[in-house]
Write a structure and sequence with these properties.
The structure is a single chain. By secondary structure, this protein is α/β, with parallel strands linked by helices. It folds into 2 domains: 113 residues, Rossmann fold, CATH 3.40.50.620; 123 residues, Rossmann fold, CATH 3.40.50.620. The strands form 4 sheets. Strands 1-2-3 form a 3-stranded parallel sheet, covered by helices on one side. Strands 4-5-8 form a 3-stranded antiparallel sheet. Helix 6 packs across helix 7. The longest helix has 16 residues. The radius of gyration is 19 Å and the shape is globular.
């Protein structure tokens, strides 16, 4: 089987050096493996992921010298497919409707447990309730979902660096229960990151998922969904994150310098590649 890699940005802002590193790493690993390199636009948030930012994403990647296969899949065109799969999960009884706001969750959870991202775990307020309004999110009933799989251990193959930064292949134990009853269908969007990324990786035949270390723990939810839906499990590689001078990870939310600003300031693509080790 020919290896297939993908770089999947969410264009709710402009790409920065962290994105450049991940894109270049995917492209290099694909080339070294004799594989294919895809771009996928993860624009399920259609309010923030505007057409001009999608175009800017392509411009930045082209400037870096990257080449990818066409056509490019945009998740905003796939809502019907995501909805159909969510309906199968609802029919199996592993999803339930939830109308709670963030404020409701904070009030109910108090100083309760938190998920790997640091957010309060949902306390299950709506689990088992009937007759909720159409304006709701859909959460996975984590206990029921795991029980449907016989509560068997879920694992994935990780080829990224360990805690010491040393890369080596190993098996990782998936722990989706650490996320609690995570949202799979949002109130305002007919999917979630977790559901869309799992379905698209399978549809596109992605064999190697190379992404930042900040998504390491999310792989637990992804392995659960792959198992529930009978989908193949890619090999994962979670690379180290780039940090700024203050020791914080580069992020759009932190207003990290966009690639297009660096370009406007006269920085050449070759300098970016050299800086990032490519």
């Amino acid at each position: 089987m020919q290896p297939v890699f993908r770089f999947a940005p969410s264009p709710n802002g402009y790409l920065h050096l962290g994105h450049a590193y991940s894109a270049l790493l995917n492209a290099r690993m694909a080339e070294e493996a004799g594989g294919r390199f895809l771009i996928r636009i993860e624009d399920i948030d259609t309010l923030r992921c505007t057409s001009d930012k999608v175009a800017a994403c392509f411009e930045d990647l082209d400037w870096l010298g990257l080449r990818w296969e066409e056509p490019v899949l945009q998740q905003s065109t796939q809502f019907g497919r995501y909805q159909a799969v969510a309906e199968t999960l609802r029919a199996r009884g592993v999803l339930y409707a939830c109308t709670c706001s963030r404020g409701d969750i904070a009030k109910a959870a108090g100083e309760g447990a938190r998920d790997p991202d640091g957010a309060l775990l949902y306390p299950g307020t709506c689990r088992g309730l009937k007759g909720l309004s159409a304006s709701c999110a859909w959460r996975i009933d984590m206990s029921k979902a795991l029980a449907s799989l016989g509560n068997k251990a879920l694992i994935w193959r990780e080829e990224g660096p360990d805690e010491t930064g040393t890369p080596h292949a190993r098996e990782e134990r998936a722990r989706p229960e650490r996320w609690g009853d995570v949202v799979l269908v949002r109130k305002d969007i007919p999917t979630s990151y977790h559901l869309a990324v799992v379905l698209d990786d399978a549809m596109q035949g992605i064999t190697h998922v190379v992404r930042g270390q900040d998504l390491f723990h999310a792989t637990g939810v992804h392995r659960l969904l792959q198992k529930l839906l009978g989908l193949p499990a890619p090999i994962y590689h979670h690379h180290a994150l780039l940090i700024d001078d203050a020791g914080k990870k580069l992020a759009k939310s932190a207003a990290s310098t966009p690639l297009r600003q660096l370009r406007a300031e006269g920085v050449r693509a070759a300098e970016i590649r050299e800086k990032l080790g490519f």
